[in-house]
Amino acid sequence: MRLNLTLIILFAAVVVLCIWLPTRVLRRRHVKAAALSDVVVRCAQGHFFTTIWIAGASFKSVRLGWRRYQYCPVGKHWSVVTPMPIDQLSDAERIEAARVHDIRIP
Ligand SMILES: [Zn+2]
To answer: Is position 48 within any domain?
Structure first.
């Protein structure tokens, strides 16, 4: 019984640290009202596109802390991508990001 309680507490801590906290930070910094399925990211070469960004779930990318290594559908290359604060993007960057959404897999 004591082992089960320890496992439950450990599982809850992992969920908070790996999923809840990063999602909260992402929503606070980058996604004001939109769903996490429409996060604007920029690749290392400066391309903007929209992607699904769910903390703790990434089947199409390699998580590198706050960034991810994934396929850029704009430049058609693999790159490190960073979520962008939506309120710091220009109109042209928002339009560019809205034009291309990568595959619908987190
Ligand atoms: Zn790119």
So the answer is: yes
Q: What is the pLDDT of residue 63?
A: 84
Residues less than 5 Å from ion ligand 1, measured at CB = 43, 45, 47, 72, 75
Could you report the average pLDDT of every consecutive run of 10 residues in the chain (106 residues)? 78 71 68 67 96 80 87 96 89 92 80
Tally of domains within the chain: 1
* Nearest alpha-carbon partner for 101 in 60, 67, 72: 72
Asked if residue 104 is part of any domain, the answer here is no
Distance 2 CA to ligand 1 centre (A): 50
- Beta strand spans in the chain (E): 39-43, 48-51, 62-64, 67-72, 77-83
- Token output for 75: 């430049």
